[in-house]
Amino acid sequence: MRKLAVALVAAGIVALLGIAVPAIAPTPGITQTELSEHLPKGFEADSERGRVLYHLAGCGNCHSNAAESGLIDNSPIGGPPLLSFAGNFHPPNITPDTETGIGGWSDVAFVNAMKFGIGPQGKRYYPAFPYTSFAKATVADLLDLKAHLDTLEPETSEIQEHSLSFPFNIRSAMFYWNLLFHDPTEFTPDNSRSIEWNRGAYLVNSLGHCGVCHSPRNMFWAERVEQAFEGGAPLKEGERAAPKLAGRDSVKILNGLDEWSGSIDENSSMYLITRNYSEHATIEDLDAIALYLSSLSPGG
Ligand code: HEC
Ligand code: HEC
C-alpha cells in the first residue's frame, strides 16, 4: 500500500512537471547529418535482411492481428490492445500508408523512434513499445528493418487512441521516465567473449527484447537490469509468467524457441515468438541465444 501511495504521489508530480519542462528541454536523438556516422562505409539497406529482423523482433506480434489469427506474416496495420495497469495501448499501423501508417518517415525519424522513443514532432512514446530494447540495435539493422517495412503494401486503418488513465495519459511525462530508466546506448560487444556469445547477447538484448517479459520490473514498470532474465510477471490473466532464463540449460532454451518441441502453451504470448524464431532464425542464431542465456549466472 505504501509503495502504491509513493508511486501515486510521484506520478502526480511528474504529471505537473510533465506539462512544463519537456517543452523547453532539447529533444534527444540523432540528426540527418549524424546518421552516416553510425553506418558502415558504403552501407546500403537490405530489405531481405530486414524481413528476417522484423520476425526476430516480433514486430508483427504487436502490430498485426497475428495474436488472433496465428498468421505471423499478416500486414502490420495495427494490433489488438495491450492491456496494462495504466490502461490499453493500441499498437499502430506501421505499413507505408501516409495517413494512418508511417509512410513518408525519413530514416532518421525511424531511428529516433526506435532508439529514443521520440516520434516526429517530438511525440514521446510509451515503453509499451519496446524502444528500451530496440535502442541497443545497430543503426544498420534498424535501416534494414525500415527497408523491409518500405516494401510492404501501404494499407489504411482506423487510428485508435490509447485509453489510459490519469496521469499516464500525459505523454510528455515520459521525458522523466526516459531520464530515469532509458539507456539509449547501443550494444557494445564484450571482447573477452566469443563472437557467438556476443551475437546471442545482441539478439536477446536488442531486437529480441526478451527482457521485456523475462526480467522483473520495478514499480515504475522499468526492467530491473541487475536482475535481468530472472523471470517476469504474467502479461495477461490466466497466462504463466515468463520464466527465468538466466543460467538455464541450453536445451531448454532451444526448446522454448522451437515450435515443434511443443514446450510452449499456444495461448501464451511466447507462442508467437516461438513461431517467428522457428521460421526465421538460423541455427547459428538459436545456438548463440542459448549459449548467452545459459552462461548468465542465475541470481545476477
Ligand atoms: C510489445 C508490443 C510491440 C512490439 C513487439 C513492437 N511494437 Fe511498435 N509500438 C507498440 C506500441 C504500443 C506503440 C505505440 C506507442 C505510443 O503510442 O506511445 C508502438 C509504436 C511504434 C512506432 C511509432 C508509430 C507512430 O505512428 O508513431 C513504430 C515506428 C513502431 N512501433 C515500430 C515497431 C517495429 C519496427 C517493431 C519491431 C522491431 C515494433 N514496433 C515492435 C508496440 C510494439
Ligand atoms: C511477450 C512476452 C515474451 C517475450 C518478449 C519473450 N518471452 Fe519467452 N516466454 C514468455 C512466457 C509467458 C513464457 C511461458 C510460456 C509457457 O509456459 O507456455 C515464455 C517461455 C520461454 C521459454 C521456455 C522456458 C521454460 O521454462 O521452458 C524460453 C526458452 C523463452 N521463453 C525464451 C525467450 C527468448 C530467448 C526471448 C527473446 C527472443 C523471449 N523468450 C521473449 C514470454 C515472453
Polypeptide structure, described:
- It is a single chain.
- The protein is mainly α and 300 residues long.
- The chain has 2 domains: 2-34 and 43-181, no CATH class; 195-295, Cytochrome Bc1 Complex, Chain D, domain 2, CATH 1.10.760.
- The chain is 42% helix and 3% strand.
- The chain is built from 14 helices and 3 strands.
- α6 packs across α8 (139-151) and α12 (250-256) packs across α14.
- The longest helix is centred in the N-terminal third of the chain and has 23 residues, at 2-24.
- The structure holds heme C (HEC) (2 copies).
- Residues 57-59, 61-63, 82, 89, 91-92, 94, 102, 113, 119, 125-126, 128-130, 134, 145, 207 line the site of one heme C.
Q: Tags for this entry?
A:
3% strand; 3-stranded antiparallel beta sheet; binds heme C; mainly alpha; 14 helices; globular; 2 domains; Cytochrome Bc1 Complex, Chain D, domain 2; 300 residues
Dominant shape:
globular
Query: What small molecules are bound in this structure?
Result: heme C
In percent terms, what proportion of residues is strand? Answer: under 5%
Structural class: mainly alpha
Unreliable runs: none
Helix proportion = 40-55%
According to DSSP, the number of beta strands is: 3
